[in-house]
Write a structure and sequence with these properties.
Elements lengths: L7 E4 L3 H14 L2 E6 L7 H5 L2 E4 L12 H11 L3 E3 L9 H10 L2 E2 L4 H8 L1 H10 L7 E6 L2 H11 L3 E5 L8 E4 L5 H16 L4 E5 L5 E9 L5 E13 L2 E7 L6 H17 L4 E9 L5 E7 L6 H8 L3 H9 L16 E8 L1 E2 L5 E2 L2 E2 L2 E3 L7 E5 L6 E2 L6 E9 L2 H13 L2 E3 L5 H8 L2 H4 L7 H5 L11 H25 L4 H4 L5 E6 L2 E10 L2 E6 L2 E6 L8 E6 L2 E10 L3 E5 L2 E8 L1 H7 L13 E3 L4 E6 L6 E2 L4 E7 L2 E6 L4 E6 L6 E2 L4 E5 L1
Helix pairs in contact: 4-5, 7-8, 12-13
Pathway: Metabolic intermediate metabolism; propanoyl-CoA degradation; succinyl-CoA from propanoyl-CoA: step 1/3
EC number: 6.4.1.3
Keywords: ATP-binding, Biotin, Ligase, Lipid degradation, Lipid metabolism, Magnesium, Manganese, Metal-binding, Mitochondrion, Nucleotide-binding, Transit peptide
């Protein structure tokens, strides 16, 4: 038996990425070591690891970001290698240097490359020296707002203010004119300090409606570099990636080769080895510009693995152990198409407010060779307010882009998570959007398609038929059970009425129903709907064949009516007799409204800024406080005008969802 490259590797991370790395270690015969905070004591990555070490209390600064505590765990475990995953210490040059002094191998690049590429100002200077195309801008630190305005006016608005130590979309603000600069500058600086402990900012020209394309690089310590294709990450919200795909439907082979050349030129310039990603923005004319280099494993690396068949984590481990790449550029073939959708604990109907709490129901789509789920949570798992809100990465594969979309659509429709808010309905709406389907996307796609926020997708004729058929099937199944419980015979049960009115939200649909084997034939005016299903009472996922096509509908609630969800659309449906429906139409709706004399926290988190004082007069839309939760900055604004009587919290206070923050006079 071949001796493993490392006896034991510690993963300096948590959640899904820790588990994903551990699975590769197990396949390679290497023992895995987990680290965990107080909040993660019972987490899946702790249970899966061969060993686990406590590294501090729940805040990341006292556990996953504590170099001292991580080093203590390395010493206690005897691990000879450390994989940092992404985030936390993964791009910390100081951590890399300390590991080297400890005689421990970092599964990643050397500290010099991390430092050079981690400073976005330095990285841009190096890219220019390497002959890499860059965005016009001011590549020095901006010291104050007035200087920022002066430089932006020289470059020409719009511009983007960016954190020098930034990454992952943190510390970035688009600025359209000089009036917006003060707020953008202060907000970007605050977020940069909170995320990177580095408030330095610089300015670049904002390329309008670009595509975000990145090249996956893998390089060994002997000067061999290979590009594993590109990923398109244009579907973003506030610079945070939402859906990624490989390859891009926009990039030609000629452009791809040019991007490869510049990626390898930059890699050679800094003496890079291990896995890394060079990110570009691409305009409508296919001109591309260097954005940044991530010296770590990317969140979205699974889509590259699905289209190349290469385990990127395994290659990182082999390279760290001193092995040469076992393949060349000519060996790399991109086969098929893959998507990744980031499932996050956030409420898209409430401005994507992060959600924390316990998962009370959890069911993944059936996995096969075309479906991959990377997660660190399951039934009973706790989504903590201290960390990133991502629950899972759902990845799908198809021989074509169209097939991969269809697999993603089906997978999202059968993914059930309850107990916390999540963004699956939003992802369903995106994946079914006509522009997305044809590949007409850019980094402003979400803003363009949902300028006033997300309130659900549009109810189409086809989905209406699915909701109609689902409602009828559930209703008759319930009625049959109730009749049998009441002691009626099978013949009596089968005489349940055939003429009904189905309401979907405020719309009424008279239907005529005929019972057939395994389902019903339904007539709704001139439409015919055929449904066949083996659904049983109690299941929250309704799977059926409607008019010859498979369809999944999530049953969110069953009371006097049904709350159903599909393709990003939530509806409430009822079944009524024709007479009862006529009577209900005559009833008057009553609405209640109450005046709120207090402001409550919309979610759990930490207050980092209070922008008003007791006795202040405020107006609707005014910024009141800034709250951070799950690494995101959330601005709380006034929903009413009035006078503040009392402020009940202080800056740096931890607050719970619903906690009263201030009282109005």
């Amino acid at each position: 038996m071949t001796k493993p490259l490392f006896d034991k590797i510690l993963i300096a991370n948590r959640g899904e990425i820790a588990l994903r790395i551990m699975r590769t270690l197990k396949q390679m015969g290497i023992r895995s070591v987990a680290v965990y905070s107080e909040a993660d004591t019972h987490s899946m990555h702790v249970q899966y690891a061969d060993e686990a070490y406590y590294t501090g209390s729940s805040p990341a600064t006292e556990s996953y970001l504590s170099i001292k505590n991580i080093i203590n765990a390395i010493r206690a475990s005897g691990a000879t290698g450390v994989h940092p995953g992404y985030g936390f210490l993964s791009e910390n040059a100081n951590f890399a240097n300390i590991l080297k002094r400890e005689g421990v191998t970092l599964i990643g690049p050397n500290a010099s490359a991390i430092k050079k590429m981690g400073d976005k100002i330095e990285a841009k200077k190096i890219a220019i020296e390497a002959g890499v195309s860059t965005v016009p801008g001011y590549i020095r630190t901006i010291s104050n707002i007035s200087q920022a305005v002066e430089i932006a006016e020289k470059i020409g608005f719009p511009v983007i203010v960016k954190a020098a130590a930034g990454g992952g979309g943190r510390g970035m603000r688009a600025v359209k004119n000089s009036e917006e600069m003060a707020n953008a500058f202060e907000s970007a600086k605050l977020e940069a300090v909170n995320n990177f402990s580095d408030g330095r900012l610089f300015i670049e020209k904002l390329i309008r409606s670009p595509r975000h394309i990145e090249i996956q690089l893998i390089a060994d310590q002997y000067g061999n570099s290979v590009c594993l294709g590109e990923r398109e990450c244009s579907i973003q919200r506030y610079h945070q990636k939402v859906i990624e795909e490989a390859p891009s439907s926009f990039i030609t082979e000629e452009i791809r080769q040019k991007m490869y050349e510049e990626t390898i030129a930059l890699s050679n310039k800094v003496g890079y080895y291990s896995a890394g990603t060079v990110e570009f923005i691409v305009d409508l004319d296919k001109n591309f510009y260097f954005l940044e280099m991530n010296t770590r494993l990317q969140v979205e690396h699974p889509v590259t693995e699905m289209v190349t068949g290469i385990d990127i984590v395994e290659e990182m481990i082999k390279i760290a152990a001193g092995e040469k790449l076992s393949f060349s550029q000519e060996d790399i073939q991109i086969k098929g198409h893959a998507f990744e959708a980031r499932i996050c604990a956030e409420n898209p109907m409430r401005g994507f407010l992060p959600s924390s709490g316990r998962i009370t129901e959890y069911s993944e789509p059936p996995k096969n060779a075309n479906i991959r789920v990377d997660t660190g949570l399951g039934l009973g798992g706790e989504v903590s307010m201290f960390y990133d809100p991502m629950i899972a990465k759902l990845c799908t594969y198809g021989e074509s882009r169209e097939q991969a979309i269809e697999v993603m659509r089906s997978s999202l429709s059968s993914y059930i998570i309850r107990g916390i808010s999540h963004n699956i309905s939003f992802l369903e709406a995106l994946i079914s959007n006509p522009r997305f389907i044809v590949g007409d996307i850019n980094t402003a796609f979400i803003e363009e398609e949902y300028p006033h926020g997300f309130s659900g997708a549009t109810l189409t004729s086809d989905i209406t038929k699915i909701f109609l058929a689902t409602t009828i099937f559930i209703y008759i199944t319930e009625q049959k059970r109730a009749s049998l419980i009441a002691g009626q015979t099978i013949d009596q049960v089968n005489k349940i009425g055939t003429r009904w009115v189905v309401s979907i939200d405020d719309n009424l649909f008279p239907v005529l129903i005929k019972s057939v084997e395994d389902g019903y034939n339904i007539r709704q005016e001139h439409d015919r709907i055929y449904i066949r299903s083996n659904w049983t009472l109690g299941s929250r996922l309704f799977s059926a064949v409607v008019n010859g096509r498979k369809a999944n509908v999530k049953i969110e609630n069953i009371t006097t009516g049904y709350v159903l969800s599909r393709s990003g659309i939530n509806v409430t449906t009822y079944v009524r007799s024709t007479r009862l429906s006529e009577l209900e139409a005559l009833m008057v709706n009553k609405f209640t409204c109450e005046e709120q004399g207090e402001l409550q926290a919309p979610l759990a988190g930490q207050i980092i800024a209070i922008k008003v004082q007791e006795g202040s007069e405020i107006i609707i839309g005014q910024e009141i406080m800034v709250l951070t939760a799950m690494k995101m900055e959330n601005i709380i604004i006034a929903a009413r005008s009035g006078k503040i009587a009392k402020i009940l919290v202080n800056e740096k206070d931890q607050v719970t969802s619903g906690q009263v923050l201030l009282e109005f006079a």
